[in-house]
Write a structure and sequence with these properties.
Number of helices: 16
Strand order of the largest sheet: 17-18-16-15-21-22-23
CATH architecture of the largest domain: 2-Layer Sandwich
Number of domains: 2
Number of strands: 23
Structural class: alpha+beta
CATH topology of the largest domain: Nucleotidyltransferase, domain 5
InterPro entries: ATPase_NBD, Carb_kinase_FGGY, Carb_kinase_FGGY_CS, FGGY_C, FGGY_N, Glycerol_kin
Strand content: 15-25%
Pathway: Polyol metabolism; glycerol degradation via glycerol kinase pathway; sn-glycerol 3-phosphate from glycerol: step 1/1
EC number: 2.7.1.30
Helix content: 25-40%
Family: Belongs to the FGGY kinase family.
Pfam family, one: FGGY_N
Radius of gyration: 23 Å
Shape: globular
CATH superfamily of the largest domain: ATPase, nucleotide binding domain
């Protein structure tokens, strides 16, 4: 009987299940969206029960479509939207509140308290993270303080904190929630633990001082395991929805899964995922490199019996969303048109577009920055603005790349790319020119799901070595720099000038 590996890819807007064969090719695929819940401005929630129900649905749908029997699955891997937090009742398995999504900003005031108390540097040193509402620590704290206690006879009159201390409540990111429902075991992997702001990425353990700071009882946090675990996280219930006992043996946060799926196994290997925004990760090997340039230090992955591999991460808020904006304002009819328009001119004629619609992320970190277009003349046409928008994606990536080289001391020789925008050949060539480095686009662009499949498959021996995975990684196309370095450097200096004009733009009236 032919064996495959399945990957649950639980994202911000929906859940995907993919089945891969030994060569890393897609055998089956199904996807389902879930509801986005916005109780108040800046608040974003998901129904964790809906996510679990959709997970079961897409697994069954994908297997049915491809006529794959669950018994043919050698293993299951999980990858997930990171930081999104669930707290649930251990006995009933029911969440005590909707999941708080990574985008949720309701705990900003709490973060500002911590900043004013001068604790930011200590948190960064332990976790590698900026102190921000983005991460799970303040989300868990908020749920324990604000969710209505479950109306159960055994818990009447007892608040959630007391129940958490007594081990009656569990918390976790979405990977933990899915692993718990699949296997009954309360487990996360090192990459997801590293995104909670409760985990010490150097000591590789839950940090007692941080747990105390955020009033999260140690009894409710999951056991932390390698991303690819030969001991397995557990098995699916043969009497459950799948009807088979399948090992669940791999998990990675989505951006780390893309790093793994792109086979960035060695120090200096880097990938950039071009989506609504972009996430650029560089493997820094066994060293947790502290950033002096506004990047995050995070765990890249860990394989069974091997040391943790660390990564530097740079988050760009707006890349693909800038192309969506061009469509919104009727400068283009669809994303595919950008290449055609951009190629119709030799340059932007000095026009720069800085897509700081929601501020600037790494390495600038300016929440008051706003989108700007500079350098226009009477001769500027939409083709110049479209080209400038594509160039802005490439320039922002160079901003991150230069920050990474400065922090790590490792010179980038090749960047592996994935995500919807990299189907655009013009953008890939532009990226190569502006970075002055090789761009490698793989054949299989679902690298996030593939990464979690690889992690699970390695754990069960479906793949014996990472060299097999390297052999699987097939290049669709490589792009080499064609532009003169001196020309590109001069243009990049002007980009920096444009960014300065975008900074600190959104001010309250009181600030003026």
């Amino acid at each position: 009987m032919t064996q495959y590996v399945g990957a649950i890819d639980q994202g911000t807007t929906g859940t995907r299940f993919m089945v891969f064969d030994h060569s890393g090719q897609v055998v089956a695929n199904a996807y389902e969206k879930h509801e986005q819940i916005y109780p108040k401005p800046g608040w974003v929630e998901h129904d964790a029960m809906e996510i679990w129900e959709n997970t079961q649905s897409v697994i069954q749908e994908a297997l049915s479509r491809a006529d794959v029997d669950p018994e043919q699955l050698a293993a299951l891997g999980v990858t997930n939207q990171r930081e999104t937090t669930v707290v649930w009742d251990k006995d009933s398995g029911r969440p005590v509140h909707n999941a708080l999504v990574w985008q949720d900003r309701r705990t900003t005031d709490r973060v500002e308290e911590i900043q004013e108390a001068g604790k930011v540097e200590e948190i960064r040193e332990k976790t590698g993270l900026e102190c921000d509402a983005y991460f799970s620590a303040t989300k868990t704290e908020w749920i324990l303080d604000n969710a209505e206690p479950l109306k159960m006879s055994s818990s009447r009159g007892r608040d959630l904190r007391a129940r958490a201390r007594d081990g009656e409540l569990l918390m976790g990111t979405i990977d933990t929630w899915l692993i718990y429902n699949l296997t009954g075991n309360h487990i996360t992997d090192v990459t997801n633990a590293s995104r909670t702001m409760l985990y010490n990425i150097r000591d590789l353990e839950w940090d007692d001082e941080l747990l105390e700071e955020f009033s999260v009882p140690k009894e409710m946090v999951p056991e932390v395991r390698p991303s690819s675990d030969e001991d397995y996280y557990g098995h699916t219930d043969p009497d459950g929805f799948l009807g088979a006992e399948v090992p669940v043996a791999g998990a990675l946060g989505d951006q780390q899964a893309a790093l793994f799926g792109q086979t960035c196994f060695d120090a200096g290997d880097a990938k950039n995922t071009y989506g609504t925004g972009s996430f650029y990760l560089m493997n820094t090997g066994e060293e947790a490199v502290s950033s002096d340039t506004g990047l995050l230090t995070t765990i890249g992955f860990q394989m069974s019996g091997e040391p943790v591999q660390y990564a530097l991460e740079g988050s760009i808020f707006i890349t693909g969303a800038a192309i969506e904006w061009l469509e919104d304002v009727d400068l283009i009819n669809n994303a595919a048109q950008t290449a055609e328009l951009a190629k119709s001119v030799d340059s932007t004629d000095g026009v720069y577009m800085v897509p700081a619609f929601t501020g600037l992320g790494a390495p600038h970190w300016d929440g008051r920055a706003r989108g700007t277009i500079v350098g226009m003349t009477r001769g500027t046409g939409k083709e110049h603005i479209v080209r400038a928008t594509l160039e802005s994606i490439a320039y922002q990536t160079r901003d991150i790349g230069e920050a990474m080289e400065a922090d790590s001391g490792v010179e980038l020789t090749s960047l592996r790319v994935d995500g919807g925008a990299v189907k655009n050949n013009f953008l890939c060539q532009l990226q190569s020119d502006i970075l002055q480095t090789e761009i490698a686009r793989p054949e299989v662009d679902e690298t996030t799901a593939l990464g979690s499949a690889y992690a699970a498959g390695l754990a069960v021996g479906y793949w014996e070595t990472i060299d097999e995975l390297r052999d699987n990684w097939q290049i669709d196309r490589e792009f080499e720099p064609e532009a003169e370095p001196a020309t590109v450097d001069a243009q990049y200096e002007r980009w920096a000038d444009a960014v300065e004009r975008a900074k600190d733009w959104a001010r309250d009236e009181d600030d003026e």
